[in-house]
Automatic annotation (TrEMBL):
This is Lactonase family protein. Residues 123-151 are annotated as: Disordered. Gene3D superfamilies: YVTN repeat-like/Quinoprotein amine dehydrogenase. Pfam families: Lactonase (PF10282).
Length: 353
């Protein structure tokens, strides 16, 4: 018996910071038996909803609006595959590209790429995001004059231990960190630098292992960094780094994620247009390259692991691809199915029923 799984697709629109051809957040069906992707439809009109997340209770979907004057928007699920906007709020920064729905369920935290700031938004009783109660700014730069002229907050995550949040800053080659008390009116505490990565590495996204190790994708130097985070000091140190792919030529890693059992690490490589698979060992301290699998399109910006498939959003080819993951070795195989979707850049599986 096959089962369909709904996917929400973040997208670029004609008015977003990076122009695209979508009209907002989209929805797609994945057949988890065959890997077929079907019926791309507009779920909700929106401007530049390039990153989408669930609320902690699963009742809402939130999106950044990646615009010069950045915003965050909240949607309730209306019917089988439609989203209804509940409200939006300005971030106070530019080009927000990543969003955290904090596990406590009271706040959204947005990474504003353009000016490097991080905005903290309370969530109202109706689920809508409110104006930010805090905005954390930063200074600094890196050696890449074109991409690192100033701070560029690219993503934000809960740190191991749960008491802090980590901000991955592409512009300054740093992991920024601050304590976060969701019960407080102003939940973010003083910010500090938890780790400095190699100059010019351009850290973009990270994945967190249950052992406390972090895996950071270096967008500008095409490497994966392994760090050990100490919750007591809220500092991290680099313990290893490896190339993000064995393919040659220019390459810019994007999304990075662990398998559910934490034995495999996956990296989306834009340029090589592959998904790289790494073996994770030594209680998370070491990674070893196993394979590069074609992403099924061009410029794989994001992916999600969904019921035995790795579903890839290939931005420049305007395709979603479903790559079956071998249950024995954890390596994705060639794309089993492709679907044309306007400028897909984020894949969010709907909550399973």
């Amino acid at each position: 018996m096959t089962r369909r799984r709904l996917l929400w697709i973040g997208s670029y629109t004609p008015d977003s910071g990076i122009p695209g051809s979508a009209a907002g957040v989209q929805s797609v069906w994945l057949d988890t038996g065959t890997g077929a992707l079907a019926e791309a439809e507009l779920a909700a009109p929106a401007s530049g909803p390039s990153f989408v997340v669930h609320s902690a209770d699963g009742r809402m979907v939130y999106a950044v609006n990646e615009l010069d004057a950045g915003r965050v928007s909240g949607f309730s699920v209306a019917g089988e595959r439609r989203l209804e906007v509940r409200g939006s709020a300005a971030t106070g920064g530019s080009s927000p590209c990543h969003l955290l729905a904090h596990p406590a369920g009271r706040h959204l935290v947005a990474a504003n790429y353009g000016d490097g700031s991080v905005s903290v938004h309370p969530i109202g009783p109706d689920g809508a995001p409110a104006e930010p109660v805090q905005r954390l700014t930063h200074t600094g730069s890196g050696p890449n004059a074109d991409r690192q002229e100033g701070p560029h907050a690219h993503s934000v995550y809960p740190a191991p231990g749960g008491a802090h949040l980590l901000v991955v800053d592409l512009g300054t080659d740093e992991l920024r960190c601050f304590p976060f008390d969701a019960a407080a009116d102003r939940p973010a505490g003083p910010q500090h630098v938890a780790a400095r990565l190699a100059p010019g590495s351009g850290p973009r996204h990270l994945a967190v292992h249950s052992s406390g190790h972090l895996y950071v994708a270096g967008e500008l130097d095409s490497r994966v960094y392994v760090l050990r985070f100490d919750p007591a000091t809220a500092r991290a140190e680099t313990v290893d780094s490896v190339p993000a792919t064995k393919a040659g030529g220019d390459n810019y890693p994007a999304e990075i994620a662990l398998s559910a059992d934490e034995r495999r690490l996956y990296v989306a490589n834009r340029g090589a247009d592959t998904i790289a698979t790494f073996e994770v060992s030594a209680d998370g301290a070491r990674v070893r390259h196993l394979a590069d699998t074609p992403s099924g399109g061009a410029w794989p910006r994001h992916f999600a692991l969904v019921d035995g498939y790795l579903v890839v959003a290939n931005q420049n080819s305007a395709t979603l691809a479903a790559l079956p993951v071998d249950p024995a070795d954890g390596v994705p195989g060639p794309a089993r199915h492709l679907l044309t979707v306007p400028t897909p850049v984020c894949v969010l599986p709907a909550r399973a029923e």
